[in-house]
Design goal:
Elements lengths: L1 H24 L3 H12 L3 E4 L4 H16 L2 H5 L8 H16 L3 E5 L6 E8 L5 E8 L5 E3 L6 H4 L25
Parallel strand pairs: 1-2
Antiparallel strand pairs: 2-3, 3-4, 4-5
Helix pairs in contact: 3-5
Length: about 180
């Protein structure tokens, strides 16, 4: 009987050590959430030169749209004034289209702010959004379109296809 208890104790101890090692080697919650989101969604096609922060923010926005998660989208806002209403408008207008292929066309150089045009292949819709650094020095979105008509308005300046008007530049002057 003592031998069984000792083996069970060793097995439990080994499980705790192995669990501790796995936990010590695993990513933090934010990284795990990002990895899960990444594997559960269509890849985002990218044109232009996003910064790490603007790319991650835009990816999260498209994922929240595809999931119909207005609260999660509003949580990405850099200003809370109209975030909830805008997020609901965007989810209603673009949620189904975000489940398919989406191309994000990044404009400007992206050190603190980037204008991005989303092209939804499934519906043919386009949406201009702005990713920028907020007051807390983290990237987020400008969500300031509580009027559904404004939230769904097609950008008048954007080309009909991604990459059609200079978004491929890195912001570095020619020859430099």
């Amino acid at each position: 009987m003592a031998r069984t208890t000792r083996l069970t104790g060793l097995a439990l101890a080994g499980g705790v050590v192995a669990g501790g090692l796995l936990t010590g080697c695993s990513s933090d919650d934010a990284s795990l959430t990002y990895q899960t989101d990444y594997s559960n969604h269509q890849p985002l096609r990218v044109v232009g030169y996003p910064s790490t922060g603007s790319l991650e923010t835009v990816q999260k926005a498209v994922w929240r749209l595809a999931d119909g998660d207005a609260d999660g989208l509003a949580a990405l806002a850099v200003d809370d004034a109209h975030a909830d209403a805008t997020a609901r408008n965007w989810v209603k207008a673009f949620g189904a289209a975000a489940e398919g292929d989406v191309t994000a066309d990044f404009y400007d150089e992206g050190s603190a702010r980037q204008v991005v045009v989303l092209y939804f292949a499934k519906s043919g819709q386009t949406k201009e959004i702005e990713a920028r650094i907020g007051e807390d020095d983290s990237w987020g979105l400008t969500l300031a379109e509580p009027d559904p008509a404004k939230a769904t308005a097609k950008p008048t300046w954007a080309p009909p296809e991604p990459g059609g008007s200079g978004s491929r530049t890195s912001g570095i002057p020619a020859g430099g």
